[in-house]
Amino acid sequence: MKGFIIYSRKENELTEKRDYSVSRLMAAAKAKGIDLDIITPNQLELVVTRSDKKSILIDNKPTSIPDFVIPRLGSDTTYYAFAVIRQLEHLGVYVCNGADSIAAVKDKLHMHQLLAYSNLPTPKTMLVKFPVDIKVVRREIGFPLVIKNVTGTQGSGIYLCESEEKFTDIMELVYSNNEKANIILQECVQTSLGRDLRAFVLGGRVIGCMKRSSDVSFKANFSRGGHVEAFEPTPEIEWLATETARLANLDIAGIDLLFDHDGYKICEANSAPGFHGMEKAIGKHIAEDILDYITLKTGINAGR
Predict the structure, then answer these.
(1) Of 25, 132, 215, 255, which one's alpha carbon is 20 to 30 angstroms from that of 31?
(2) What's the pLDDT score for residue 252?
(3) 142: DSSP letter
(4) CATH annotation of 124-188
(5) What is the tens place of the pLDDT at every residue in 134-159?
């Protein structure tokens, strides 16, 4: 069984701390007898032809298409990487997750539209239009509020803004640097400041759930120093997580939930979720579960 991980760094550049999830997948594949290689987008040449549907160009050499591909670029997926992933899908390769699913999750506003129009609980969200009308922001969102880049991961590009004065200063700074910046505003769910939940969904079921918390920041990401502990998923958590993954057609998903007064709100979805914190909280089995799921989906024996 042959597979590729599409990632930003080659195998000899990986470190356990920075690239934990990819390193774990590589080790688990080796233990299972799966031939798994890391391919960066820059190694691939995209040639669209109807004559050869059994190979692709890697480092300028024709290479047989793999049985499966795991994209691990998440919100950093470029247009070129999307094109490569779509090409592999057209060639009949099983891609976990597909290009359309990654694109849907990468655009945070689109994802919130999808969730809200499916009647799922999410923070009230507003797209910024420059120049910003502070009266509309005050009326529709209120303060404090959360400012987010439309794309971003691991807590990057997310800011808590407590007052109108700070908000005006931040928007002026953003506008002066990029008047076409895509920024969204969200209501601040104050009952969840400094804590949230991450549910790991694989193949339509929750295989792990953890609570993340921080003593120093309103962002509780493990990658930013947050504390993690196992959390028993309730039926509500399982439904919100699996339904979010289903709407975006994600085989693998990290679904972040906020603690609300009477339940939970969906914060965001991740198409290439890291699982260092999850395995620290619940034990090491996420990488193995992913590969077992892919083996089941493709119907190919791991050692083939």
Answers:
(1) 255
(2) 98
(3) -
(4) 3.30.1490.20
(5) 999 999 999 999 999 887 555 567 88
